[in-house]
Design brief:
single chain; 100 residues; alpha+beta; NE0471 N-terminal domain-like; three-stranded antiparallel beta sheet; 13% helix; 31% strand; globular; binds zinc ion
């Protein structure tokens, strides 16, 4: 059973994405989330290796827009123009879990 967030909000002043799960609530920094983008531009599809240079992510990156994709993911339009990454609930859940 995959966890589904009950709320996701972009808190632009704090620069974090606030995600409410049924057992916890987390604030994930935008800059961190942007760096975790798993789209084909950011990660090599074959090797899983990150192509995105984290140093190229602006420290003040923000969320321009978010849209739900079906009932399993959210697409984030970042202020650097990048919008091809989907963040599935599963992925967000992973990122919300401090130690693995
Ligand atoms: Zn990406």
């Amino acid at each position: 059973m995959n966890p589904v967030p009950s709320d996701i909000r972009a808190l632009r002043e704090q620069g974090v994405l606030n995600i409410v799960w049924n057992d916890r609530q987390v604030d994930l920094p935008f800059v961190y989330l942007r760096g975790q983008c798993a789209c084909a531009h950011c990660v090599n599809e074959w090797t899983g290796e990150r192509i995105l240079d984290l140093a190229s992510v602006p420290a003040d990156i923000s969320v321009e827009k978010m849209e739900l994709v079906g009932s399993y993911a959210v697409r984030i339009l970042w202020s650097d123009g990048h919008n091809s990454g989907l963040y599935t609930w599963e992925r967000l859940r992973e990122l919300s879990t401090p130690e693995r």
